[in-house]
């Protein structure tokens, strides 16, 4: 078994165990800022009413909800995740908002999307890049499935730009986050992994270079909340 396969199974198992309380934990751990981060990322996608978009690593569908509002009744959101338990929570969320006609959930791997090339008007991945076994393959699939001229957006955690804030952030990340997440979900190990995955993840400039190497053009990124998260945006031109 390859290292990538091992990571894939560990990540799927982890999200399966915390799916039911994932949304509550996110809201508390981010102090509610995750809503603004996601809203900003959706805006960068440049979509409008009637657009067809794909949400990779959709999880419980928070981004899919925002995308559904942007594309309206005439648009379509395809929400993709490889964890069935997360998808089930997402389906309940979509149904509760009566927007199930706009959003379709598909259980699939970000590295092997079951869609034709040049199919969507935009693609977004929110807080999933750290958990993909082979990120270059996922970026390649994101590029493949969107139409020429469409944008790809990657929303992900990063290290704060301020050194003083960085020390406080790392204390919160490694000491407080596992305690709070573990208390809410009963699974402290999953939140220790999340903290470690954030700390080990690519620098924003490295992520920009990776997207450019895959074939995205005009790649830029925005740092939000003192650099705690970044939003990378790239474009497909052919």
Describe the structure.
The longest helix has 23 residues. The protein has one domain: Vaccinia Virus protein VP39 (Rossmann fold), CATH 3.40.50. The termini are far apart. It is built from 9 helices and 7 strands; from the N terminus they run H-H-H-E-H-E-H-E-E-H-E-H-H-H-E-E. It has a 7-stranded mixed beta sheet, with helices on both faces. With 238 residues, it is α/β, with parallel strands linked by helices. Helix 3 crosses helix 4. The model has no long low-confidence stretch (mean pLDDT 91).
CATH homologous superfamily caption: Vaccinia Virus protein VP39
Q: Give the helix tally.
A: 9
CATH topology: Rossmann fold
Q: According to CATH, what is the class?
A: Alpha Beta
The major β-sheet equals: 7 strands, mixed
Structural class, by secondary structure, is: alpha/beta
Assign the CATH architecture: 3-Layer(aba) Sandwich
What general outline do the C-alpha atoms trace?
Answer: globular
If you average the pLDDT, what whole number results?
91
Low-confidence stretches: none
What is the count of distinct domains? 1
Features:
single chain, 238 residues, alpha/beta, Rossmann fold, seven-stranded mixed sheet, 49% helix, 21% strand
Structure summarized in a few sentences:
By secondary structure, the chain is an alpha/beta fold. The protein contains nine helices and seven strands, in the order H-H-H-E-H-E-H-E-E-H-E-H-H-H-E-E.
Tell me the layout of helices and strands.
Elements: H1 3-18, H2 22-29, H3 33-44, E1 52-56, H4 62-71, E2 76-81, H5 84-96, E3 103-107, E4 120-126, H6 135-145, E5 146-157, H7 163-185, H8 188-200, H9 204-214, E6 217-224, E7 229-235
Parallel strand pairs: 1-2, 1-4, 2-3, 4-5
Antiparallel strand pairs: 5-7, 6-7
Helix pairs in contact: 2-7, 3-4, 7-8
């Amino acid at each position: 078994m390859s290292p990538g396969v091992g990571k894939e199974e560990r990540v799927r198992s982890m999200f399966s165990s915390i799916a039911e309380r994932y949304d509550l934990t996110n809201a508390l751990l981010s102090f509610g800022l995750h809503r603004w981060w996601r809203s900003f990322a959706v805006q960068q996608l440049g979509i409008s009413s009637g657009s067809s978009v794909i949400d990779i690593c959709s999880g419980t569908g928070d981004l899919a909800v925002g995308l559904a509002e942007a594309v309206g009744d005439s648009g379509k959101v395809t929400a993709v995740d490889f964890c069935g338990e997360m998808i089930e929570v997402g389906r309940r969320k979509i149904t509760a908002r009566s927007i199930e006609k706009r959003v379709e959930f598909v259980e699939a791997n970000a590295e092997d999307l079951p869609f034709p090339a040049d199919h969507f008007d935009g693609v977004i991945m929110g807080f999933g890049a750290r958990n993909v076994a082979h990120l270059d393959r996922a970026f390649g699939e994101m590029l493949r499935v969107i139409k020429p001229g469409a944008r790809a957006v990657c929303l992900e955690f990063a290290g704060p730009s301020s050194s003083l804030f960085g020390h406080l952030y790392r204390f919160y990340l490694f000491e407080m986050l596992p305690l709070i997440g573990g208390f809410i979900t009963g699974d402290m190990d999953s939140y220790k992994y999340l903290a470690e995955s954030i700390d080990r993840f690519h620098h924003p400039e490295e992520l920009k270079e990776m997207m450019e190497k895959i074939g995205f053009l005009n790649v830029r990124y925005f740092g939000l909340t003192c650099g705690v998260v970044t939003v990378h945006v790239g474009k497909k031109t052919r």
